Amino acid sequence: MQPDTRRYTALITGCSRGIGLAIARAIAGSCRRLFIVGRDEKQLQAASAQLICDEVIILAGDITKTQFREDIKARVDALGGINLLVNNAGLSDFSAFVEQSPESIAALLDINLLAPISLTQLLLPQLQQASTAQVINIGSILGYIGHPGYAAYCASKFGLRGFTEALARELSDSHIRVRLFSPRATKTDLNSPAALELNRQLGNTEDSAEDVAKHFLAFLERKEQEYRMGFAEGLFTKVNQMLPFVVSRHMKKQLPKIRLALSVKGIGKDGNNV
Ligand SMILES: NC(=O)c1ccc[n+]([C@@H]2O[C@H](COP(=O)([O-])OP(=O)(O)OC[C@H]3O[C@@H](n4cnc5c(N)ncnc54)[C@H](OP(=O)(O)O)[C@@H]3O)[C@@H](O)[C@H]2O)c1
What we know:
By secondary structure, this protein is of the alpha/beta class. The chain is 49% helix and 14% strand.
């Protein structure tokens, strides 16, 4: 008899496209049941059709809303819980800090930081009932490096990294692992024309969502606490931790290119960066 390899009952937020959908495709075969979350029900249905999994449950709604998070919990409870939570949904905003509206900053912190914290807290009793469980938060290389044009985004991803580290330590004598997976620039709808121009100006490597998902799958099966995509980016984050003034000096030299990119107008496919 073949061993049953479908060891996950997983919930992934931000699953209708981009990195979330690629991760869902990559882990679907290892899941008994997969809950996929996003705001657009039609897009989730299209996503679901691409997932080879015994059972896919679509949960359509806005995870920044308390009621929707309660609905998620009720549905997950009714179906016997999960043993893997992937907090992936997020948005980005590459723009001069002085030009960001208080509303857009609040929305960004809400989706990137408060929603994953609140959802994790709500689903923790479920995760505690599983024999082993994981929470994986999707961070960013910009959760390690303060980058001009990304002040609010960096604040959200630094915050998510701090949350992950603290909760992992709080639960370190339990069977729940809380870990951080941090992509570098990735070709998805998240990035506005200005952000794409920044990557071009600075020569930043852009991964495909499928590449990111492959690395995620490998990370899922290993034990390390965190993973950063890209050798050069990983090294840069370490230099930033040990010798921040070196990175500050480098970024100061890059400011003309960064300002040029910031001047590019246009809205991302996700509505980011007006
Ligand atoms: N792309 C990059 O360059 C990059 C680099 C580093 C880290 N990341 C991180 O990777 C994660 C995924 O990004 P991505 O590039 O895949 O973005 P994306 O292509 O824009 O996808 C974002 C997903 O989140 C969902 N979503 C957004 N707001 C939501 C809300 N309020 N409630 C429920 N779902 C919501 C979207 O669906 P709906 O719009 O239908 O709700 C969509 O499925 C994010 O946390 C991002 O910060 C991305």
